[in-house]
Design a protein that fits this description.
The protein is mostly helical and 193 residues long. It contains seven helices and no strands.
């Protein structure tokens, strides 16, 4: 028996850990908690591409963009408030570029999920992450002529951060699946009593 982590739905390939009416709130809570953890643990290496894929797989584009924006705000608040990022024009500008790149990755994720086949394969999310991460990195790299930082785009660094995003995506999908299983167990128990 195959373990189907991500059920297929008629509207498109989506994560459904909670009822649709709670999806945006759940996604925001999940990504906010993940972002806080990533911000403290990784500082500037927050896996926004993975966050974008999860938001796009759980929500329609507009709420996904809002949720990812919220996660970005958490990241920036922690960075400037708790991690004491320098308050200068370059750091603030990079913060906005990161936010914009996260939104681009979300839009790309939504578009990719909309055109890929609707099936139960985790390969769909993997392909979406590759596209989201490429869009995210390209958006960041596009700012380097104005803000500097080209040396952060070596193959080794980009690959390491891509693999980190993949690990985060697996963890976030696992968290969604655990919540979905707990919810389905609770609903099954309520029906039987």
């Amino acid at each position: 028996m195959a373990f189907d982590i991500l059920p297929s739905h008629a509207d498109r390939f989506r994560l459904h850990p909670v009822e649709p009416r709670h999806a945006a709130l759940f996604c925001f809570a999940l990504l906010t908690a993940a972002c806080a953890l990533a911000s403290f643990a990784l500082a500037c290496a927050t896996p926004f591409a993975a966050f974008a894929v999860v938001a796009a797989a759980m929500l329609r584009l507009a709420p996904a963009l809002l949720v990812v924006s919220g996660a970005w705000l958490v990241n920036q608040t922690i960075g400037f408030g708790a991690l004491h990022y320098p308050v200068d024009v370059g750091t603030i500008a990079w913060g906005f570029v990161i936010g914009g790149a996260a939104l681009v990755a979300t839009a790309v994720s939504s578009a990719v999920l909309g055109v890929l086949p609707q099936n139960r394969s985790p390969l769909v999310l993997a392909l979406t992450l590759v596209c989201a991460y490429a869009a995210y990195e390209l958006a960041l790299f596009a700012a380097t002529p104005f803000l500097g930082g080209q040396m952060a785009f070596t193959a080794a660094i980009v690959t390491r951060l891509g693999l980190l995003s993949a690990v985060w995506l697996v963890g976030l999908v696992a968290a969604c699946e655990i919540v979905r299983l707990i919810n389905s167990f609770g609903r099954g128990r309520a029906i039987s009593t």
